[in-house]
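Researcher: First entry.
Model:
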Amino acid sequence: MDDSKIIELYWLRDQEAITQTNMKYGGLCRSISMNIVSDSRDSEECVADSYMAAWNSMPPQRPLRLKAWLAAVVM
């Protein structure tokens, strides 16, 4: 799914936004978090917290590049 459509799902408060985010960027988010915490459980919690942060931030934020924005949130 196109990033702009995923962002629109967040703005519509559609929980499918989380599913689509995970499908498209879950691997990236897990990779970043594993490089930071080096524990699979902690990594999954970090990713879940990042998705929650995305949910709570959109709206009002509308990232121009979702991939870069998510990577920054995970860090």
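Researcher: Second entry.
Model:
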Amino acid sequence: MSNSVSALNGASANGFVQIRDMGLQGMITLRGDLSGATLKKAVQGAAGGDMPGTGRISLTDTGAAAWMSPDELLIVVPYAEVEAKLSDIGSTMADAHHMAVNVSDARCMFSITGDGGLVREVLAKLMPVDLSPEAFKVGQFRRSRMAQVPAAVWMASDGEARVVCFRSVAQYVFDLLKGAAAPGSEVRYMAR
């Protein structure tokens, strides 16, 4: 039996911010009626927090639930717990219409840490999103394009952003982030 490894096996880079492959992350795509009480209960059981609002992520010490679309969430849990969480979701949802799929090995997650304004600057160089602190606050979640590929981003704190992308483009996204954080390329628009 092979051992699971993340797309970039913990790669990291230091520029004017730090970029790090976060290793194996448990991720579940959950589709269903987001207003339904049963689905809300399943989310709380899986991620340990409340249902996120539109364009939000609900973060807890044990997981997260991110709003992906009007009928879709991304549930983030420890990698080793995905199968148990899928079983729990299935039991909670029972006959209620839903789809829950383990997408852990199809995704990659990066952490970008440093001065909050500079973290935002790295992302702003690559995404057509207003990432100013006034427009994109901690707890907001956004799906967009990062250069030529789809990605999702949120501010985990004032000094840390998280990016999720497809595993197949992990090296490309890592290189984009590394290039955007190259020493000497700071604009400092958001880090005044």
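Model: Note on the second entry: The mean pLDDT is 94.
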